[in-house]
Structures are given as C-alpha cells and as structure tokens.
Amino acid sequence: MKIPFLSLLLALALLCTSCTSVFAEVTMKIDETKTYQTIESFGTSGAWWSQYAGLWDQSYQGTLRTNRQRIATLLYDPTYGIGLTNYRYNLGAGSADSGNGDYTDVNRRAQSFEVAPGEYDWTKDEGAMWFAQEVTRLGCEEVVLFFNSPLERLTKNGWAHLTPGGEKSNIDPENYDEWAVYACDVAEHFIELGIPVKFISPINEPQWDWTGSQEGCHYEPTEIAAVYVAFLEEMQKRPALAGVELSGPESGEWGGQATKYVSALLNNRILSEHFTAIDCHSYWTNTQTKISFKNWMDVQYPDVKLRMSEWCEMVNGSDFGMDSAIVLAKTLQEDLTILDVVSWATWVGVAPGGYHDGLIYASESGDGEVSIVPVKRLWAYGNYTRYIRPGFTRVDVSGNDSLRPVAFIGENDGKEQLVIVLINDQFSAQTAILEGDFSQYSSMTVHETSNYRDLARTYSGAVDTSVSVPMQSVITIVLSK
C-alpha cells in the first residue's frame, strides 16, 4: 500500500512542478510592423518642492555636487538619473507674496514675478527658476508653464483659491486678457534665458472646488474656451512664442465631465485649429473609463493626440518600496496602451514624505541638514523614461499580457533599438518568452528595479529570447542593432 501512495505523491509533485513552470512562462510576440503613437516626453511637476529645494546649495554628502544638483541629476540626467525630458513649472498666483488665503502648508503658496501690472522682479521664485535652468542644462526639451489659479489681483475675492461658500468662478472674463499678457511676458523671459517653453497651461483641474490648502480655481465647461482664446490671441501677437502651444483642459480625470471640458476646446472654431493634443490627468479613473474616453476621442476627434500631464497614487503614508512603484508602472503602461498617450508626467518630482507622490523624498531639518531619498517609484519610472526616448514609437505586443508589456522602437545614442518593459506584480519569478524577428539585433541588455535593485543592469550580451522577470519587479529589455 505504501508504494502506490508514494508514487501518487511523486506524480502529483511532478504535475504541480509542471503546472508552475507553464504558468511562470509568459509568451509574447513583438510585431514591429504594427505601430501606434510616438513618444514626445516623460516628465514631472516642480510644484511645490522646487521653490525651496532649489535653494539647497549645500554640498551633497561632502561631494562636489550640491543637494539641489543631486535632485536634478536623479530626475533629468539620462545616465545617472532617469532622463526625464518634460518639466512642469508652476506659475504662482502670488499667494506667497500676499499671505492671503487659507493654506495649511506654507510651501503650497507660490510667488508671482509681478510686482505691479506690467512690472516684474525676475529674481523672485529663485529656487524654482534654478531648477528650470538646471534641468534644461541636463537635457529637458519641454517646459510647461502652468497655473493653478489666475494672479491674485485678477481674482474676484483677491485670493488664489475660492472662498468657502462663495462664488465658484473666481475671475471675471474682462480680466482674461490681462492674465494672458502676464503669462506671455513670463514665457518670453524664460525663452530668452534658453528655457525651452513648449506649452502654456492656464487652467488646472477645473472641475474641482478649490477652497483652500493650495492655489486653485474652478471653471465650468462653458467658461474655459474664452480663457484659452484670450491666451491664444495674445500668444499669436508675439513672434518669440511662435513655437509655443496651449495645454488643456487639464481635467483631473478621464471620466466625469472630461468629455465636456475637452469638447469646449475642440468644438470652438478658433481653438480647434490650434490644439493638436489635449492634456488630462489620470486620477480617479479605472480601466474601463479610459477605454470609453479613448473610444469617444477616436470617434469625435481622431486626429487629436492625448497627453497625461499629472498623476500620483493619492494614498496617505510614505512608501519607499515596490508596492507603489508597481502601481505607478501599471498606470503608465495602461495609459500608454489604452489611451495611446504621447506624453506622461507624475505629480510630483520631490515630496517631504507622508504620501505616495514624490519620486524622491527630501526634507531639510532644523539644523540645515538635507535628506534625499530616491524611492522605488523613481527607478520603476526610469525603466520607461531612461530607455523610451522622445521619438520612439510603440509597436505591437500580442499574446499573454500578464506581465503588462509595452514595446517601442527608436534611436538612442546612435543605435536603433527595441525596448520592452515588463511588470511582474507577483510574489514569484516569471519567465518572459519573446517571439519575433530579432535577427537584426546584435546585443541585449536587461535593467531591473526590484526590492534588491535600482534600475540595475542584470544582463549584457547576445540576444536571448528567454528572460527572467524577478518577483515584484519592473524590467527593461533593450535590443540594439
């Protein structure tokens, strides 16, 4: 009786091993002839951290670099950091100058360059300005000047956010033109400094009621077209801004009233000729909502591209590890493959901790000591941003999508490359089996972010179509000609 029982156990063990092996192998076919969107940029926002972190000019841990240079390098250097190419600069409404309004965190106030109508002090917002110039030096190609609120002096209540219980609209239409003049004056100054301003964004998340804690302004869908027309007409008067576009409507989500805000811009005769892309945020949006929005865009505005200009996980508490990093990677992969976004940006680059937001946690103690901690979100984001460069085009991946693959082709460092990024959210390793015509590629590298590695190279050699994907990891496979 014992021998058959042991044989049965052995057979079951072999069967389970076989099942595990089959489950752990994920096959995907790469078809470079079927293409989708071309990437324009990956980035992050400088609100509100850059205004104080940009002043951290102390030596970083006794090196020749300063603390602020360390942060800029991690975010924008393509060799030692993650190589971002988009920087969203917050044009403040002046709440930091006036002290008006209700702000629980003083760092969420922001300065304005204006000292009087048409008069500017360009030494203001010194920290944020330092970052704008430093990231440009490191290779940033696309700066977006965005407002959370109009200038305080142009608002109805004299504050950069709504008065609780007061009017939702906080700026009169007769002030749109003056506001646009200010924005264009600032844009011209930035361009004179060599900062590559590509977009001006007057409105941020217009559907929410901004009644405190940060600068913000509510707009109904029927109001926003007039704002953008005023900005566009002012921009068109200025030859220096010929290459600058408007960004909008910056809806906080792809669902809700997003279609109404987008329609308000793209159904306007003047604006429809200007907008080649629209920007929205990926907060509070599930997969089906994104599918529905993309289907709606394909029917209504098939020639207009999508850009995702702000997202973080919106979860309390600090997270240094892979949990939130994988959430970020999944959101990015979904936006790339469902929405076909050509640009994607996080909110925010740096944060003090206590929330699943910053790519870096950084803070200054009372004695002036600065702590800079790159978290796994930074490196997981870098699995995409360092290797999928502007100009790379997404190609088709079919088969088992449990590793949430994306694949792009393009040229980087003079080499034609195929870049594949995979996400393993399981607590066991898996094996990716790549199918396709890889005969034109002569070498391959693999780069891993996991509990044990920060965007580290784990393989360099000949092309191998069987690639191990460790548990709880994001990996990038780069095939080069």
What order do the helices and strands come in, and which of them pair?
Layout: H1 2-24, E1 25-38, E2 41-45, H2 50-53, H3 67-76, E3 86-90, H4 95-98, E4 114-116, E5 119-120, H5 126-138, E6 142-146, H6 176-192, E7 197-201, H7 221-235, E8 245-246, E9 249-251, H8 258-266, H9 269-272, E10 277-280, H10 287-300, E11 305-308, H11 322-337, E12 343-346, E13 350-351, E14 360-364, E15 370-374, H12 376-385, E16 393-399, E17 406-412, E18 415-424, E19 430-435, E20 443-449, E21 456-461, E22 466-469, E23 473-480
Parallel strand pairs: 1-19, 2-3, 2-12, 3-6, 6-7, 7-8, 9-10, 10-11, 13-14
Antiparallel strand pairs: 1-16, 4-5, 14-15, 16-17, 17-18, 18-23, 19-22, 20-21, 20-23
Please summarize what this structure is:
The protein is an alpha/beta fold and 481 residues long.
Mean pLDDT over the full residue set: 95
**Class by SSE composition:** alpha/beta
Strand order of the largest sheet: 21-20-23-18-17-16-1-19-22
CATH homology superfamily name of the largest domain: Glycosidases
Largest sheet: 9 strands, mixed
Radius of gyration from the alpha-carbon trace, in angstroms: 24 Å
Any idea what the CATH architecture of the largest domain is? Alpha-Beta Barrel
What would the principal axes of the Cα set say about the shape? globular
Instruction: Give the helix proportion (percent range).
Output: 25-40%
Query: Low-confidence stretches at least 5 residues in length (pLDDT < 50)?
Result: 1-23
- In whole angstroms, the N-to-C terminal distance is 62 Å
Record field, number of beta strands: 23
Residue share in β-strands? 25-35%
> How many distinct folded domains?
2
